[in-house]
User: What shape does this take?
Amino acid sequence: MSKVGAREAPVLGRISVSEIYGPVVQGEGAVIGKPTVFVRTGGCDYRCSWCDTKFAVLPQYRETWKKMTTEEVFAEVRGLSRGRPILVTLSGGNPALQPLGPLVSLGKEHGYGFAIETQGTVARDWFSDLDHLTVSPKPPSSGMETDWGKLSRCLRAGGEDTRATLKVVVFDETDYAYAREVGYRFPEVPVYLQVGNDRPPSPETDDTTEPDDKGLLHRYAWLADKVLADGWNEATVLPQLHVLVWGNSRGV
Ligand code: SF4
Assistant: This one.
């Protein structure tokens, strides 16, 4: 007899997938501008106030997440890329919660590259097989607190051929001070700063909520000025390119 309201047991070895889409052009971080296929996993250990992928985070959307095998996910990625090797971006939610190691191994056997975007709470052995490890600790405006030890373990989990970078979203002065602290704590890791979108899509309104482009560009100029005034010459300041070009539409 099934129990009403009982949680679905995790299926061993299966990946919780919110969506797979692409190819699109990566809109942020160290591989901005690069064609990529996204594998967005379902489930996250954070609840950031301005999260723009709540449909991949909140439990009420769990029913929309598919439990897929490694082979099923890779077949979909291959179909989208028409069999041509491409960079696969593992995002979420927090993709580090999922058993993605076999997918990375399988994809690499076929010439595919792999990048991950994770907040830096869970380190996995398979990070060492990635080409790009983007660790994105969340600033105070998110409402989350950083565990610096866990963040450090995530950054160290990359391999010799993994390019590890830090990405920090900045909305205000407090976030900027946090980003500076991140830079001081991990001086050997390149830091990418990104202007936050204060009108993120919500699963309810999705494509109808439009970002404030002027406000985003204004804040980009503010952030760039701060970095230049501080002489923080190692930092890279980026907008969210996809938000400026395609707005809040999903799947771009
Ligand atoms: S870590 Fe990322 S996916 Fe998770 S709640 Fe925060 S912004 Fe959303």
Remarks:
- Residues 213-230 form the longest helix (18 residues).
